[in-house]
Write a structure and sequence with these properties.
Elements lengths: L1 H16 L2 E4 L4 H14 L3 E7 L5 H14 L3 E5 L6 H4 L5 H19 L5 E2 L12 H8 L5 H4 L4 H10 L25 H16 L6 E5 L2 E5 L5 H7 L2 H11 L3 E4 L11 H6 L6
Helix pairs in contact: 1-2, 2-3, 5-6, 9-11
Length: 276
């Protein structure tokens, strides 16, 4: 019943808005928002995807396919966060500058096209993680319907399945800049290298993964339960060779396994008192 109530609250919010532009990445969260917005508003809802070097081309294609399946009008816009040294220097609040660029781009476009609201796919669980980009979006007047009504990531998937969206189990796919430790400069060449490495592994059948990049080292993260299978069934020398052809020198496997937001642990450790 609670899930049904939240869905009705989301529908009521879009009814109240009348017209809305959705900051649409193609991820499961923003796609659910786009679906509900379109069900309520029809062509008075618009999905807009920001394209930059930190977005995999395959993710853009997925976003286009999903938008077409839903039926929602879809547009693509270029963003230029890579021109901002506050972003490329990769500080701990890098995402603040990314979302600033995104919403500084989307807001004037939305107003120009007659959309009084820009909404995103931030969910209730995101509020409990280190997400400086949320503050940037809020400062620019963006709305986060899922977070506003307490919709968690699990509930996003449940609602997506309930509404018949075939990608309800789609793994999270944050921007490629999240693959680098804070403080390491981000370049287009590095983004392309790590992106191609992840595409290579996905073509081998490994979907929920990350390739973390630190200088010349690639660290493969897989779900813990998949690590043994990967070692036993994958041609490891071929993986090493493929990664070295992309420009990595060292190729490693993270024995802890994939964990969302793992690189944020350095922030958490820095803020934790040392016990003597």
């Amino acid at each position: 019943m609670m899930l049904t109530e939240k869905l009705e609250q989301l529908k009521a919010l879009f009814t109240e808005m009348g017209r809305a532009l959705i900051a649409y990445s193609g991820g499961v969260d923003s796609t659910l928002v786009a679906k509900i917005a379109y069900d309520v508003l029809g062509d008075r809802a618009l999905a807009m995807t920001a394209v930059s070097p930190s977005l995999l081309p395959e993710e853009l294609e997925d976003a286009k396919i999903q938008a077409a399946t839903i039926g929602i009008p879809h547009k693509v816009v270029q963003t230029h966060e890579m021109d901002n040294p506050n972003y490329t220097s990769n500080p701990v609040n890098r995402c603040y500058f990314c979302k600033s660029e995104l919403h500084d781009t989307l807001k004037p476009l939305a107003l120009e096209m007659g959309y009084p609201y820009v909404v995103d796919g931030v969910n209730a669980d995101d509020l409990h993680d280190y997400r400086p980009g949320i503050q940037a979006a809020k400062e620019r007047g963006a709305r986060s319907p899922l977070a506003e009504f307490g919709v968690t990531k699990l509930e996003v998937r449940q609602l997506s399945q309930q509404l018949g969206l075939p990608w309800w189990e789609k793994p999270a796919q944050p921007c490629l800049s999240s693959r680098f430790p804070y403080g390491e400069e981000i370049t287009i060449a590095k983004l392309q290298r790590v992106g191609r490495a992840e595409i290579y592994l996905r073509k081998l059948g490994w979907q929920n993964l990350r390739v973390r990049s630190e200088e010349d080292t690639a660290r493969i993260e897989l779900p813990p339960e998949k690590i043994q299978d990967f070692v036993l069934t994958t041609d490891l020398p071929s993986v090493v060779n493929a990664f070295q052809e992309l420009g990595f020198i060292y190729v490693t496997l993270d024995l802890e396994g994939y964990r969302s937001g793992k690189l944020n642990q350095v922030i958490n450790q820095a803020n934790t008192p040392i016990k003597v």
